[in-house]
Prior knowledge:
This protein has helices at residues 2-19, 33-48, 67-78, 108-117, 137-149, 161-194, 198-206, 217-225, 227-234, 238-247, 256-268, 271-275, 279-289; strands at residues 24-30, 58-64, 82-87, 100-105, 129-136. It is α+β, with helices and mostly antiparallel strands. It has two domains: 2-171, Beta Polymerase, domain 2 (2-Layer Sandwich), CATH 3.30.460; 195-289, no CATH class. The longest helix is centred in the middle third of the chain and has 34 residues, at 161-194.
Amino acid sequence: MLRIIANRLESVIYQHLNQCGLMFRLFSRVKTISSLHHKMQIKGEGYRAGKIKIQDMIGLRIVLYFQDDVDALAFFYSCGDVVRSSVDELDSSTFRPQRLNLTCNLPAEFIEDFRKAIPEEFSDYIDNTYEIQIRTIFSEGWHEVEHDLRYKCKEDWDGCESYSRVLNGVIATLETAEWNMKSLFDQMARVNFQNKNYRAMIRNKMRLRIKGEDLSAYIQEFLHQHPHVAENILNTDRFVIILTLLNHQKSIELTFDNLLFLMNRIEINNQELREMESDCTRKILDDFFA
Length: 290
């Protein structure tokens, strides 16, 4: 039953992230009996005293392609039904990964089945929550290695502090690679603008899963004749667009045309571009923003 609940939670999150075009991978897991025993060995005193509860009986991990997507998703979830968030503050002198874990209340319709499925011997130590971990693809690979080969066997690293620091240094290298990758696509978008390749500009600017192959010819012609509008598109705040897509209950098909019209309505407000919306597109966007 716990696996069924985890699958349903995963399905809801998958549909939500997929409709806003984010590039991601999604995984879920349910704690095993052996894992619960291991956790009780480590933190059992706190659980038995009622100071803390096991809150990750069900865990989901969202793995995103870019760090700024992590920031957007963390901001979005912070406005929802989050019981607790664990976000590590980074500093300039220490090599360590940034942890972003969110503890959320289970939807009410799952709680009865969840309580029935919990092993009775651990029931008093588990509350009605689940955990969402948000990572980038680069940090996900590092976390998997570190979790299995250091976190689970800390005693193996006694006397090997220098090697532990080197392992932490790897995550610093990966963070630099993430920054460089985002910067690369930002620079490509600017070069695309200079070359008047507006389809590629939008793709590299937004870094979303866009359906279809190109902008409509009449839109491309308009942008060629009005380069200042194309530059406004280039300078659109991607964070605002992503949050808009995340927050709205209704979905919109993310074709190049629709995405451009959406960006125009949110940030650019060019009347000529708005008049290019077909009746069907206008109705879709009106419903989206209603």
